[in-house]
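Worked example 4.2. Below are the chains of a multi-component assembly; read each line carefully before continuing.
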Amino acid sequence: MFINYEHESHVYSVMIERRDDSYFITYDNTEYKVQCEEVKPGQLKIMIGDRLIKSIVTEGEHEKYVFIDGNVYKVKPVELTGRTTKKKKDTGAADLDSPISGKVVTVKVKKDESVKKGDVLLVIEAMKMEYLIRAPYDGTVTKIHFKENDQIEIGKTTVEMTKKKEE
Amino acid sequence: MFKKILIANRGEIAVRIIKACQELGIHTIAIYSEVDASSPHVTLADEAINLGDPTPIESYLNIPKIIQIAKEHHADAIHPGYGFLAENPDFAQTCNKAGIKFIGPTPEVISLMGDKIAAKKTMEKAGVPVIPGYHGLKQDNKALAEEGKKIGFPLLVKAAAGGGGKGMRIVNSEDMLLESIEGAKRESKSSFGDDTVFLEKYLEKPRHIEFQILADEQGHTIHLFERECSIQRRHQKIIEESPSPVMTKKLRGEMGKAAVTAAKAVGYSNAGTVEFMIDEHLNYYFMEMNTRLQVEHPITELTTGIDLAKWQLRIASGEPLTLQQTDIIQRGHAIECRIYAEDPSNGFLPSTGTLHKVEEPKGPNIRVDSGIVTNNIISAYYDPMLSKLITYAENRGDCIQKMRWALSHYIVMGVTSNIWFLRKVLEHNEFVKGNTTTHFIDNYFSEWTKTKKALPVEALISLAVYDSLHSKKEEIVRYKEADPHSPWKHMGRWRIGKEV
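Applying the procedure described above to all two chains together yields the following structure tokens:
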């Protein structure tokens, strides 16, 4: 699952995936493996490696608040227009859309290249932050819509892929 | 003792007074404007009357309406709290005329102390030191310069009509005096259309120190030691402590005596506060007297063990003050932090919105006087103070540590609060050393902005995990994983207190 949060007019893009008892969170090219327990609604105990973090998350009308280490951070989930409609037809295709308007800084794959789920396909930069477009499943790249240094709009499809057939 | 009291206030102070009344077995009547309908003071009181329109002048400042409610509900007395009508002599007078006891001093005393120049003259006559100055009618430059020389340097020339630093000059020596008077006059004329100026001794490194007074209606008056309230922003206190870090035994004795003299000079009754400024050489000067219970009264309650709110009620009902000066012992150290809905990184601009979550720190010797609960709405109608956090410990160092802990465990989500800022002040080396002057915030925090650093990765991880846990897909998985025999499974999705 890709999620974008806006805080103090910066957008933070994270990917989270649950595998067994752990969550794998990718942010800023780093993957964090964490274990989590929701002690009370919104009250979290998170182990990041051997570090324990206690935080509280509360939802407002359109925003969310995190209380951590005595500080409160207010974030807004960023609406990704153009994603919702496509979501219906394909399970992972929406994840190939750009989460943000910005500039394509790196294209990591070529046409007809086969990729594994989670591989980085494209890097987009916006507001001095980098966003990674990853393969949502194992498969083959069929079309690349952008080259390096191209401007890209939010919701535009970056790369097209065909899913590897289940054997 | 009174049977029924109306509390003509809102927020934490209304809560504080209601509790004092209830402890004494007094029936309480709260009043509230429609935006305060779910406020704690409304819930707590034995009766609560809706004032409607939230505009202060139509609600908490509406004298006829409040008096009428008090009469209809047979209140024997009205407690005004602080702010709103607390220092309004007309209100006190109207209460008296209606046969309702106003809990505070007489309208005459409120009126006298409300006139700052008359108050200073009264104090000067009673032998209480006031800031040397000239507030007279002689306005020609030469005569003013002569008055200035008598006062001594450094000296402050300020516009009578002034404000915001306009028409104000600090004069360090005699040769600059005439020039500064002329300059201040010109500036005052162009800013305010009036060139009347006052002269006052300028205090370097001033501190705000005040003394708590209790006086009964028979004339017995005592003081309950000092509070230092130098940490201020926009001329409003945000951190107060008792005792003051600069106070000496000798000075405390002298100032306490001066405070009692000041109260007696005007025939003061009930709880009051005598405010002084002191300079770096520990010279003290009377500033003004506040004829009400102060916001920061809890630090005096903690360091003396005396319940000021209850004594207000007893004194107003005519009971004698049975405490003697020698009964009052100052012990340990207390600090109060005022929790405001405001943005310190944006000129302390008030912040409004819904409080999505409020959780107060709990622990030994931690007191929270609060006027808010989760889901309350902070509107722009009233003062944005949410609550007061007060800690008490054996000494100042321990008390600071406890306050830091308490602040870091105070959760306020939904509006921007000053909690983080208060923590930074308490961590500041000069604060820790006790070098607190009224210029503290301007000196050390004027350029301060909450470091607009990136969202920490821990926060991002928390959010992502939370969103993952609460995504629809995950909730279904969790639902399926739950005990297959549980009767709750057959109820479908549900939520307490809300319709799905």
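Take a moment to check your reading of the output against the notes. The first strand of chain A starts at residue 2 and ends at 7. Residues 84-163 of chain A form a domain with the OB fold (Dihydrolipoamide Acetyltransferase, E2P) fold (CATH 2.40.50.100).
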